[in-house]
Specification:
118 residues; alpha+beta; Thrombin, subunit H; six-stranded antiparallel beta barrel; 16% helix
């Protein structure tokens, strides 16, 4: 796993590149296995067999990350990106899980507490 840094990255939170098995549920109740390929406090990207509509609510579950919910923000070949609904205590807990995953690689403490990049 490694922290992704892009030259003109406009994202609010740093992304962690990884491969985590999980599943997702679209609004119609259909469930699919997936691989989460990158994640941050504000969003994640996954690959899976079915891509929902932009703006559609989606529930994602992974053993390491737990359950998170968000809206499909964009599509890419083989998958989609999700803007996560993370705020308050839930956001801090999620950030702590990300810190536990990335800590050996040196993700800094600001991310662990859900703070945005300066």
């Amino acid at each position: 796993m490694m922290l992704l840094k892009r030259p003109k990255d406009r994202r609010e939170h740093p992304r962690i590149k990884l491969k985590l098995a999980g599943n997702y549920v679209l609004e119609d109740g259909s469930r699919y296995d997936c691989t989460i390929v990158d994640v941050s406090v504000g969003g994640l990207a996954l690959t899976g067999p079915k891509v929902g509509r932009r703006g559609e609510r989606v529930l994602i579950h992974s053993e390491r990350l737990g359950r998170v919910m968000g809206n499909i923000a964009r599509h890419y070949t083989g998958g989609f990106a999700v803007a996560l609904d993370m705020s308050g205590i839930a956001g801090q807990r999620f950030a702590a899980r990300l810190y536990e995953i990335e800590a050996p690689s040196g993700l800094n403490d600001r991310v662990a507490f859900g703070q945005r990049r300066a």
